[in-house]
Amino acid sequence: MKIGFIGVGNMGGPMCRNIIRNTNHEVVVFDLNPAALKECTDLGASSALSVAELAKGCDVVITSLPTPRIVEDVTLGTGGVAENARPGAVFIDLSTNSPATAKRVNEGMKAKGIPMLEAPVSGGTSRAKDGTIVIMVGGDSQTFEQQLPLLKSFSGEVVHVGDIGMGSTAKLINNMLAFCNAAAAAEALMMGKRAGIDLHKLDSVIRNASGMSSGYANMATKAFKGEFQPTFALDLAHKDLRLALELADDLGVPGLIAPQVMSLMRMARGMGLGGQDSSSVIKVYEAALKEEVRA
Ligand code: NAD
């Protein structure tokens, strides 16, 4: 098969390269960033000059793009996937979107005879690289079964959650929980710092005790090293939490904890940290208390 991959950044790049490494499919890539493209063409992919050129020649078109607006532009806009892919080609979106966007894009694709799976992913760049990323899929069973071998070629766990919209729903709920854990971890680590406890010993306790979560582990690793270059940008995390809060409102579920985390992210973005890693929310505590959690 010929696979087209649009958006080969922090997440799309390693997932695309795993398809190249682990399958015999021919892979074509498109991205606005030439450096991101090169990492894939160096491994054997060819590159297209536009979304339209890529979509015209592929059996499956995959996207991993930053925001719902960009996903809609690239799929339903002029020169986009719906306009150019052949009927019968399959579209798979790995980006984190709202369920409403996934449904809108699906309608546009359906009108052109293009079956779609929404397939957001979780596990961060390290698991995207080692091919153990979790994929939560919304879409019809037939398309899911047909595309399962391709999805498994870059994932450790593929879960068919339900119809279109349910993949995004699972993803937003998961991320809301992860961001709450990460924010609590930032607060906990600042308490440890203020208490004067050996932070590595505190870390050993938490990693083996009930406070452990992947949100904690990621926060501690990045804060201790002071490494905040983005593997998952704060701007993207803020987008995800905004979508999760909208979903909670749509469902009539009163948010108590997640809106507090949203305020923390807003403070961090107000400090100019939107382009840094999402773990940089700890800098709000560090700025307030004038000390850093490094160890
Ligand atoms: P990223 O910014 O690193 O990568 C996005 C890529 O899309 C970039 O290379 C960019 O140049 C490209 N791009 C943007 N607009 C484009 C366009 N119009 N046409 C072609 N290419 C375009 O972002 P990322 O961290 O890889 O995230 C991608 C998606 O995955 C997002 O929806 C994000 O929420 C989600 N996600 C990210 C993580 C993570 O840990 N980074 C984890 C799970 C899910």
Question: Care to describe what's here?
Answer:
This protein is an alpha/beta fold. The protein has 2 domains: 2-162, Rossmann fold; 169-289, Orthogonal Bundle (N-(1-d-carboxylethyl)-l-norvaline Dehydrogenase, domain 2). The chain is built from 14 helices and 9 strands. Helix 4 runs parallel beside helix 6 (99-111) and helix 12 packs antiparallel against helix 13 (258-270). The structure holds nicotinamide-adenine-dinucleotide. Nicotinamide-adenine-dinucleotide binds at residues 6-12, 30-33, 36, 64-66, 70, 74, 95-96, 121-122, 124-125, 231-232, 236, 240.
Features:
single chain; 295 residues; alpha/beta; Rossmann fold; N-(1-d-carboxylethyl)-l-norvaline Dehydrogenase, domain 2; 2 domains; six-stranded parallel sheet; three-stranded mixed sheet; binds nicotinamide-adenine-dinucleotide
Instruction: Provide the helix percentage.
Output: 40-55%
Rounded to an integer in angstroms, the radius of gyration calculated over CA atoms is 20 Å
Order of helices and strands: EHEHEHEHHEHEEHEHEHHHHHH
**What kind of assembly state do the chains in view correspond to?**
single chain
What small ligands are held by the chains?
Answer: nicotinamide-adenine-dinucleotide
CATH class of the largest domain: Alpha Beta
Separation of the first and last Cα atoms: 49 Å
